[in-house]
Amino acid sequence: MGIYDKARELGKEMLECEAAVKLNAAREAFDNSREAQQLVEEYSGLKQKFNEIMADKDSDKLPLTDIGNKITEMEKQIKENEITSGLIKAETEYGAFVNSVFNIINATIQGEDTSSCQGCCSSCTGCH
């Protein structure tokens, strides 16, 4: 088996791990919730409007305070919404898992013995 075949095999296994299963479930819940989607769409629209005003050196900056307050409120609503917060949590956990796998690969390439490493352990120089 060549290195590319092993990489594909690893990728498939990573898609079947617990963190990926949780992420897929969270994405499905988000896709099925119009309320959660509207929260994110409204938040994204506000952020875009804020950035457009900031980027335009000739625009009136007075609305930025109001938009900033609305963005802060939307962030609070997104964190309080079970579906959006669940998706954020699942994305964060899966990202950490992927990083740990890549850290193990990187440490192995650098010659470190990672044969007993399962992710994050006290014997390592850092979390893998």
Given helix and strand content, the structural type is mainly alpha
- The portion of residues assigned to helices is over 70%
What is the distance, rounded to the nearest whole angstrom, between the alpha carbons of the first and last residues? 25 Å
Average the pLDDT over all residues and give the rounded result: 90
Strand content: under 5%
| Overall outline | elongated
Order of helices and strands: HHHHH
Over all CA atoms, what is the radius of gyration? 21 Å
Q: Report low-confidence residues grouped into runs of 5 or more.
A: 121-128
Largest sheet, in brief, is: none
How many individual helices? Answer: 5
- Count of strand segments: 0
Brief description of this entry?
The chain has 128 residues and is an all-alpha fold. 75% of the residues lie in helices and 0% in strands. It has 5 helices and no strands.
How are the SSEs placed, and which strands pair?
Elements: H1 3-16, H2 18-31, H3 34-55, H4 63-80, H5 82-109
Helix pairs in contact: 2-5, 3-4
Structure explained in plain terms:
- The protein is mainly alpha-helical and 128 residues long.
- It contains 5 helices and no strands.
- It has helices spanning 3-16, 18-31, 34-55, 63-80, 82-109.
- The longest helix is centred in the last third of the chain and has 28 residues, at 82-109.
- The chain is elongated, with a radius of gyration of 21 Å.
- The two termini are 25 Å apart.
- Residues 121-128 have low confidence and may be disordered.
